Structure prediction request, 183 residues.
Amino acid sequence: MKYLVLLTLLLTACQSPGTRINSATCPENCIEQSETSLDIALHKSHQKWLELKSEGYTNYHYEVHFSSWVGFGHKTRLRVEQDKIVAREYHAWNNDAVEVEHWLEEGEAMLGSHPPGAALKTIDQLYRQCTDILTQDLAKVETFIFKTDDLGVLKQCQFRRKHCADDCHFGIRIERLSLHKNE
Prediction:
């Protein structure tokens, strides 16, 4: 865990491949990159994930959070063992931060039985989803965001739609990824 990698890439829709992001619109923590660099960064991160899996890290859990600008939100925690989802837990809260819903799904028969919450996806499936996100129609997208955690594993892969005022980021945002080596 001595890797300290935080990679933030943004690509605005008005750019063509090979052009740079206007530094006036690029936040402090972004790296000016081209569309091709997003593909390279995604590939590098995916290779790091496959390397960790080959070292026996196929047991893990992660959380997906959503919080609206007005205060309500939810989080889902997914637990994966031997590359299979075995549990999904959901918490939702209102504008006053009071929990309004909580449930736990465990076992194959229960998984996916509640409509709300993050989709039942392994990290491998999230990498495939990220590839789809990065191929969105640029005419409808203002910004792409791609970040990795300190291990180099996917943390955020989102896009922001043009002409959107509130809660405008769509895609993947992983929180609290915890890896466990198989015994």
